[in-house]
Design brief:
Layout: E1 5-8, H1 10-16, H2 21-27, H3 32-39, H4 48-58, H5 62-65, E2 66-69
Antiparallel strand pairs: 1-2
Length: 74
């Protein structure tokens, strides 16, 4: 039992709302590399202040950009 995983769905969320990566970078004080890590689900340690800035800018809940996927139990 691995306990499942957390998936970052920021890229899907921003695309569904027509928000460019450039706007997120500028309005959330992110580096392009940092945003790409979040968009590509390649973040090892989540920075809570970064998530707070993103949620504030996007006017969304944390559950809109993070999803928990449980392990499949067979």
């Amino acid at each position: 039992m691995n306990g499942g995983k957390v998936i970052i769905t920021l890229d899907e969320y921003r695309l569904s709302r027509g928000i460019s990566k450039y706007k997120l970078i500028k309005n959330c004080n992110l580096s392009p590399a940092q945003l790409n890590s979040y968009c590509n689900n390649k973040v090892a340690r989540i920075d809570l202040p970064v998530l707070a800035r993103i949620c504030d800018y996007l006017e969304c809940e944390i559950s809109d950009i993070l999803k928990y996927v449980p392990d499949n139990i067979d």
